[in-house]
Structures are given as structure tokens and as C-alpha cells.
Design brief:
Shape: elongated
CATH topology of one domain: Aminopeptidase
Helix content: 55-70%
CATH class of one domain: Alpha Beta
Radius of gyration: 47 Å
Strand content: 5-15%
Order of helices and strands: HHHHEEEHEHEEHEHEHHH
CATH architecture of one domain: 3-Layer(aba) Sandwich
Largest sheet: 6 strands, mixed
Strand order of the largest sheet: 4-1-5-8-6-7
Length: about 400
């Protein structure tokens, strides 16, 4: 019995030890597995981080490359735009040399907001001796006329001449009679084709020309000029030779012919100043017409905010070829252009044109009024009389002393 109990106890002990050992091995095994698993997870995370970093680096590199490409593309586009703008500007500059100027940006050039001068326009150059002498010098300067036509006596600026001829273009009817284009010419042209009509307002050119002409007449008279009109009603339709002869007969310092332009495209816009081209018929008035025309067009477009198409020399205009006084023809804008057509039919815009032309005339033709001349002559004669009186008085006193 005792032996059996001992065997049984030993067996139980061995089982217990085995169980303990099993538990210990199991615990150690789980720990190793956890460590291994942890290492695997850590390694996986590290790999994921490395992959993520690689992806980030790749994305960053790709983005950088993309940005560089985009920047290059942007620069290229910018260069293309700049080149396009340069070409467009060059094209516009070239087009200004043509008779018709085409541009889709009409409104930006002709619809600028410019307030009409509120203060009454004053003739600051009247009787300004410095300005007068400066203008005389400029008007008498040598030019290609002196070389091409040395025997022609040029018409030059005269400060005592304050006569301005205003010629409102066209009439309410055409005058299809013909007249010579120039003295002695066999080329015959009709006297008046009737002028243009507003493509959008349907207002004819002769109405606008007369409205502006009468406003200009009033403004110039306020400034001290004598104004002569070629016509004062719409019913009158004189020929161009007759209009020129009126200016010749009064010996005008300048003849201003008022017109509005038209073209076969609605995109043509801007103001022009037509002047005589240099020919045997216009040599005497070429320089002075050009000088005045440049000053007038610049002053007008600045005041009205319109596009400046510049000076346009012409050989074919009858009124130029027959004129013996300096002459210009103002094209105030295009009636074929909607914006300018509507503007030219507003009193506000007409007033801007008038003020601009008046400023130009004051600048180009400073005058010495008759009253001022008389006053200066009177002072001179008074001083002469006074000196003579003094001499006579001295002589009388001498005689009395001798007696």
C-alpha cells in the first residue's frame, strides 16, 4: 500500500511538473511569437512609411516637374500673348496709314469719359507778343516747298488777320453739276455728292456739320475772331470752287471745312484732318495748312477723347486745289460706326469737338486785335507829338529869352 501511494504521489508530481513545464514553454512560446509578430508589424509599418515617403518624393518630384512644365508653358503662353500683342499693335499702327481703320475696340477709343470744360474758354494768346513772334518764326521756316517751288510766295501766318472761314459740308440735296478739279484741269468732278448718313441714327452728315459749324462760329467770335460762313442753311448746296472762292475773297487766315466720315465697315473709327498735298496748285498754302492742321487735330482729339487718325494729305479735293488761303478739312468721326454715329448726334460731344478746335485755332493763330494795334500806334503817335511839343516849347522859350 505504501509503495503504491509513493508511486502515485511520484506520478502526480511528475504530472504537475510536466504541466508546469508545459505552461512555462507555452508562455515563452507566446512571448516569442508576439515579439516576432511585433517585429513583423514594425517592419511592415517601416516599409509602409518608406513606401509612403517614396511616393511623397515621387509625387513631389512629379509635381515639381509638372510645375516646371507649367511654368514653361505659362512663360511660353505669356511670350505668345506678348508677341501677339506686339503683332496686333504693329498691325494697328500699320492700319492707321490706311484710309480705313478697322478695330473691334471702338468703344474704348471713342467713349472715354471727359468732362466738357466748365469755365469759359479764353484766348490767352491774344496780343501775346512772345507767342506771336514764335508763331511767325515757325510759319516762315524753310521747308520742302522752298526747294520744290522756289518761285512760289508762300502764305504765312499774319497776327493781324483774325478771319476764319467755316464751311459746313454738303447740303440737303446733291448738286450733280460738274466743275474742274483744279485750275486749268480737264478732270471734272461733281459739286456735291450729298454726303453720308448715319448708319444707325439715320441722321445725314450735313445736319451734324452745320450744327458743329454754328457752335464753332459762336465760340470763335467770343475769342476775338471774325467768322465768315460759306453757307448758313441746309438748303444751300454750293460747289467746292465757290466755297473756296469765298475764303479767297475775304483773305481768311484759315478755312475750316466740317465733315463726317463713312466707310464700308462698321469698325472704322476716329477723326482725321485732311490737308492739301504738295502740288503746283497748293504749294503756296501747303506749309501753313499742314502747320494749322496738325495743331487742330491734336487739340480736338484730346478734348473729345477720340482716336487720332492724323493728317491725310490729298491731291484730289477740289476745294483744296482752288484755295488760295490755308485750308483743312475736319473728319469728325465715322457715321458708319455705331458708337461715333450716336456720339456725333449729341450736343455734349459736339461741344467737345468745338472746344477742341477752338483751342487749336487759338494755339495755331494767336491774334493781335485791331484795338491793340490802334492803341500801340496811338501811344507811338502821342509820344511823337509830345516830343515835338517839347521841342517847340523849348524853341519858343529860347526865342523869348533872346528877345
Amino acid at each position: 500500500m505504501t509503495r503504491k501511494k509513493k508511486k502515485k504521489s511520484s506520478l502526480i508530481l511528475l504530472v504537475f511538473v510536466g504541466i508546469c513545464l508545459g505552461v512555462i514553454f507555452m508562455t515563452l512560446g507566446n512571448r516569442d511569437n508576439k515579439v516576432v509578430a511585433g517585429e513583423k508589424i514594425s517592419s511592415k509599418d517601416t516599409n509602409n512609411e518608406e513606401v509612403a515617403k517614396d511616393i511623397d518624393r515621387k509625387d513631389s518630384s512629379d509635381n515639381h516637374k509638372e510645375n516646371v512644365v507649367n511654368d514653361k508653358n505659362d512663360d511660353k503662353k505669356s511670350d505668345e500673348i506678348d508677341n501677339a500683342n506686339k503683332e496686333e499693335n504693329q498691325s494697328k499702327n500699320d492700319e492707321t496709314k490706311e484710309e480705313i481703320k478697322e478695330d473691334s475696340n471702338t468703344e474704348t477709343s471713342t467713349d472715354e469719359k471727359k468732362e466738357v470744360t466748365e469755365e469759359p474758354l479764353k484766348n490767352e494768346t491774344k496780343n501775346d507778343e512772345n507767342k506771336i513772334q514764335e508763331t511767325i518764326k515757325t510759319s516762315n521756316s524753310k521747308s520742302k516747298v522752298d526747294e520744290a517751288y522756289p518761285n512760289v510766295k508762300k502764305v504765312t501766318y499774319d497776327p493781324s488777320n483774325n478771319i476764319i472761314l467755316i464751311d459746313p459740308g454738303h447740303g440737303n440735296r446733291s448738286n450733280l453739276e460738274k466743275e474742274p478739279n483744279a485750275p486749268g484741269s480737264s478732270v471734272m468732278k461733281i459739286k456735291d455728292g450729298g454726303g453720308a448718313t448715319g448708319s444707325f441714327t439715320k441722321v445725314p452728315e450735313y445736319i451734324i456739320a452745320m450744327d458743329v459749324s454754328m457752335m464753332l462760329k459762336e465760340k470763335l467770335e467770343e475769342l476775338g475772331y471774325i467768322v465768315v460762313m460759306t453757307k448758313t442753311t441746309h438748303e444751300e448746296s454750293p460747289g467746292n470752287v465757290e466755297r473756296a472762292e469765298i475764303g479767297n475773297n475775304v483773305g481768311a487766315a484759315l478755312a475750316i471745312r466740317m465733315h463726317a466720315d463713312s466707310a464700308g465697315t462698321p469698325n472704322a473709327y476716329g477723326a482725321s484732318m485732311l490737308i492739301p498735298d504738295l502740288t503746283e496748285h497748293t504749294a503756296a498754302i501747303y506749309d501753313e495748312s499742314k502747320r494749322c492742321g496738325k495743331i487742330l487735330i491734336d487739340a480736338m482729339v484730346e478734348e473729345a477723347g477720340m482716336y487720332n487718325r492724323g493728317l491725310k494729305p490729298r491731291k484730289d479735293i477740289t476745294g483744296f486745289n482752288w484755295s488760295k488761303v490755308p485750308v483743312v478739312l475736319v473728319e469728325m468721326g465715322f457715321l458708319s460706326n455705331e458708337n461715333e454715329d450716336r456720339l456725333l448726334n449729341t450736343k455734349e460731344y459736339q461741344e467737345k469737338i468745338v472746344i477742341g478746335l477752338a483751342k487749336g485755332i487759338v494755339e495755331a493763330l494767336p491774334i493781335q486785335t485791331v484795338q491793340e494795334v490802334d492803341a500801340q500806334e496811338g501811344k507811338s503817335s502821342d509820344s511823337t507829338v509830345n516830343s515835338e511839343q517839347v521841342e517847340q516849347s523849348d524853341e519858343i522859350e529860347g526865342i523869348e529869352e533872346n528877345n
